[in-house]
Amino acid sequence: MKLERRHDHKLPTGVLGASLSPDGRSIVAGCMDGVYKQSLDDGGHQKLYAHHSYVSSAKWVREDLILTAGYDGRVCWYHPDTEQQQREIKLHEFWSWDMACSPDGSRLASVTGQYLAGSYKYEPQSEKEPSLCIVAVEDGRVLHQLPHVPSVQSVAFSPDGRHVAAGNLMGEVRVFDAQTGEMNANWTTPDFTSWGIIK
Asked: In this structure, are residues 169 and 190 in contact, taking their beta carbons and an 8 Å threshold?
């Protein structure tokens, strides 16, 4: 596979997360100072709103809905046409490292957790709050709060939306049933870790 650069646009601050609009003509970007909408036609950008800290994830779920999560532990619902924030919930006490949406847009998953050394060998302490939360997009209800070993920094839904996978700093991956919250698989891989850097 060969990648070809098609556009080269800039925003005022660093981008931590971004996604395409449904029509593919714009992006929504989560940045260090807020949430931006940027045209891919001419590169023009507009700041939409801000979190209380860095914005780690931005998902353009459908034409009338943008979801963002940030280091303030909050998730925001925003209507790009009316330019109004529809809902905001405090989902985590610590940062939201990453957020994902199910393919049908009905659920979001967000992961958190602060790495704190639990011993002289640097094993992490136990989580202070659930590391993975699954939320109903329609009304903001928390459907599941699921355990992991912090810090959990990556999350994704399966293509059919039935499972959620979450990976932590040490390369441990847990896969949960998105409907029931039951853990279906768990393994550790050296190919997905920053653990060697910390040790």
From this structure: no
Quickly list DSSP for 20-38. Answer: E-TTSSEEEEEETTEEEEE
pLDDT at 111 over 70: yes
Taking the chain, what is the end-to-end CA distance rounded to the nearest angstrom? 35
Question: Which CATH class for the 13-90 domain?
Answer: mainly beta
Domain ranges for the chain, please list them. 13-90, 98-199
Fold of 98-199: Lipocalin (2.40.128)
Three-class DSSP category at 143: strand
Whether the predicted model's global pTM rises above the 0.85 cut: yes
Instruction: Name the residue among 95, 94, 150 with its Cα closest to residue 126.
Output: 150
Indicate the DSSP class of residue 179.
Answer: T
Distance, CA of 145 to CA of 132 (rounded, Å): 6
